[in-house]
Structures are given as structure tokens and as C-alpha cells.
From TrEMBL:
It is an enzyme of class 2 (transferase). Belongs to the glycerate kinase type-1 family. This is Glycerate kinase. One of its GO terms (biological process) is organic acid phosphorylation. Keywords: Kinase, Transferase. One of its GO terms (molecular function) is glycerate kinase activity. Its EC number is 2.7.1.31. The keyword Membrane does not apply.
Length: 376
């Protein structure tokens, strides 16, 4: 019996890798003869780096770069098992959780560190990049990242602007000539499920600015500045990019990557491809996936649905094991062989999260007993 375990994280309690290894342990207990592959998944947000390093037997490179507030921080990026592809998780270099609540202000945050990580990887000969865009603290349109990579943005006095959101409205000229020449040799794949354009009522500033600490007044200023910034870039490149789906992702970082020739892809699909999920699923008798809570929203492109679709394309059944099953979970049954919540008694959310590992292990043991008997 061959089992592929490809879960998302149970946010706030277990990483995707921890979920996968816990289910694997349960199967080894109840079906020791089974061959079990753990292929942890992510959708481009938190956990993307850990997931891809584990799945491809890659290595993490520890380094120092500018954090979201511009101070030097210890961070890192990954190099996949192929030795040719770097993975950068925005949540670990310009992430919202890295900024204390009292200091959250996207007028002052920067993506400069993202550019520094890319530059360092370029120096190691890397030319292929996977970028997970989720969880950013920024709304600078990728200004900081572009500056770190050599693009020059000047104000009306001819001085370079600061690499922060507040500078967007001060830019009067853009020069791409000093962009690092190695950038022309690069391929960037961006994991993002955000479809927002860059500006306007559905753009980066109006949709996500307040979550990052902006006041309503600042949201208006950021959107106005973003349009100025984008217009200048579009003129310089002779391209129209502002309205492209995903340009507004990660406070406009999606737009900056589009300007650098990147392709934006659905997060789950990109991560699954990079981890080689199809190769494992082809050999599977059963596929197991899960997430913190599954409900009707899972049907709107969430990771477990993508796993089930990959499995179905090879005629393999998928079992869903999630922390909880929420409203409309019965709508999931046409897509999964069976759906399970790991909690087995009335508890508070805090208690459920604290005991998620042991509950998951017990639930997975029961499922292992069932399907190992079915296979005999």
C-alpha cells in the first residue's frame, strides 16, 4: 500500500511538515508494511520555504538583510535540491508578523531586503527563483526591492528616494539602466493567489493597507503614490501592468515582479509542481491532505482542493483530515473520499490547538486501520 501525505499547515498549531510527519507516524504504527511519502504543501504564504526545502531535500542559506522596518535582521532563503533554484518567502524578510503592532505603518515599511536576498543568490550563480508572496507588511509597490537591484528612483531635487511606501508620491524619474545585468538571465515564478490590480478601490492599498496598519487617510495617499510610481515605470518599460491580476499582491510587489518579467501562478499549483507532487501521486493508492479548517471556502482554490484535483487526474482517492470542519463542509464530499475533523470532544479553540498533534495522530491511526483493512 502506497500513501502520499500532502497537507497544508494547521495555522497557529502545526506546520505542514509536522502535520505530514504525524500522519506518517500513525500509519507506521497501524500499517507498517505501507510505503508512505510525506510531501508537505503551502500556497505561497507562511511555510513555503520549509515545505519546498523538505520536499526537494534543499538547503537553507542563513544571511543578514534589511527587515520590513529597514533594520538589519537575520533571515534566510532556500536553495532547492536541484541546486539551481532559490526560494524566498516574503513573510520571512518583509512579513507582517515581524513588525510589532504599535509600529505597523505601510508608509514606513520596505521590501529592500527582498532585493538584497535576490542579489545574494545571483552572486551564487542562481538564476531561477520561486517567490512566495503571502504575509507582507509592505505597501511600497516593490520600490525597495527594485532599488536594491539597481533601479534608480529620484525626487524633484534629483536625489534617490527612501525605499518606503511614503516615497511613492515623491518619485519624478525612473532609470532601469543600472539594473543588475544578471537580472536579464533570470526566471521568476511568483506564488500568489491574490488577483487584485495595483491601484483603485480593489487595489493593494485599499484592500490590504488597513490590515497592515494604515489609516484611511494613509490608504488614500498610498494609492495615489502607487499610481504615480506605476505610471512612471510603465512609461519607462513601455508596458501596461497595473491592471494585471495579481499586480496588487503583497502591497504591489506583484507589480514589481511583473515589471521584471516574472510570471504569477496560483500558489498551490506552483508549490506542488516544484515539490514534484505528481510523481508521488502516480504511485499512490491513497492521497491524504488537510488544513486547519475545511469548509465551503476550501472549494475556492484552497490547497486541499488542488491536491484532490491532482489525485483525481490520476484516478486516486483523497482523504481530507483537518483540524475542524466548518460551515458547508458537506459540499466537500464530491471531491474527497472522506472528510475528517481531528477533534473528538467539545473543547475551546485554544484547547483544540494545544492538543492538535495528539488528536491528529489518533484520527490518522483510525484512518490507517480502516484503509489498510480495505486494501487487504
Amino acid at each position: 500500500m502506497n500513501i502520499v501525505i500532502a497537507p497544508d499547515s494547521y495555522k497557529g498549531s502545526l506546520s505542514a511538515k509536522e502535520v505530514g510527519l504525524t500522519i506518517q507516524e500513525a500509519f507506521q504504527m497501524e500499517a507498517p508494511e505501507a510505503k508512505v511519502w510525506v510531501v508537505p504543501m503551502a500556497d505561497g504564504g507562511e511555510g513555503t520555504l520549509e515545505t519546498l526545502l523538505y520536499s526537494t531535500n534543499g538547503t537553507k542559506v542563513e544571511t543578514t538583510a534589511s527587515g520590513p522596518l529597514g533594520h538589519a535582521i537575520t533571515t534566510g532563503y532556500g536553495i532547492l535540491g536541484d541546486g539551481r533554484t532559490a526560494v524566498i518567502e516574503i513573510a520571512q524578510i518583509a512579513g507582517l508578523t515581524m513588525v510589532p503592532d504599535a509600529e505597523r505603518n505601510p508608509m514606513q515599511t520596505t521590501t529592500y531586503g527582498v532585493g538584497e536576498l535576490i542579489k545574494e543568490a545571483l552572486g551564487k550563480g542562481i538564476r531561477n527563483f520561486i517567490i512566495g508572496l503571502g504575509g507582507s507588511a509592505t505597501n511600497d509597490g516593490g520600490l525597495g526591492m527594485m532599488q536594491a537591484l539597481g533601479v534608480v528612483f529620484q525626487d524633484e531635487e534629483g536625489k534617490p528616494v527612501q525605499p518606503i511606501g511614503a516615497s511613492l508620491s515623491k518619485i519624478v524619474s525612473v532609470d532601469f539602466a543600472p539594473l543588475l545585468p544578471q537580472m536579464k538571465e533570470c526566471q521568476f515564478k511568483i506564488a500568489s493567489d491574490v488577483k487584485n490590480p495595483l491601484c483603485g478601490s480593489n487595489g493593494a492599498s485599499f484592500t490590504y493597507g488597513s490590515q497592515k496598519g494604515a489609516s484611511q487617510e494613509q490608504v488614500v495617499l498610498l494609492d495615489k503614490g502607487m499610481r504615480n510610481f506605476a505610471d512612471l515605470i510603465e512609461q519607462a518599460l513601455q508596458q501596461k501592468l497595473q491592471q494585471m491580476p495579481g499586480a496588487g499582491a503583497a502591497g504591489g510587489l506583484g507589480f514589481a515582479f511583473l515589471a521584471l518579467g516574472a510570471t504569477l501562478e496560483p500558489g498551490a499549483q506552483l508549490i506542488a509542481n516544484a515539490a514534484g507532487l505528481d510523481r508521488y501521486v502516480q504511485q499512490a493508492d491513497w492521497v491524504i491532505t488537510g488544513e486547519g479548517q475545511s469548509d465551503y471556502q476550501t472549494l475556492y482554490g484552497k490547497l486541499p482542493l488542488h491536491i484532490a484535483q491532482v489525485a483525481r487526474s490520476y484516478g486516486k482517492p483523497t482523504i481530507l483530515i483537518s483540524g475542524a470542519l466548518g460551515r458547508g463542509h458537506e459540499q466537500l464530499l464530491p471531491h474527497f473520499f472522506s472528510c475528517h475533523a481531528i477533534t473528538h470532544a467539545p473543547v475551546t479553540l485554544q484547547e483544540a490547538m494545544a492538543s492538535s498533534k495528539e488528536n491528529l495522530y489518533f484520527c490518522a491511526r483510525n484512518i490507517a486501520r480502516l484503509i489498510s483493512k480495505k486494501n487487504h
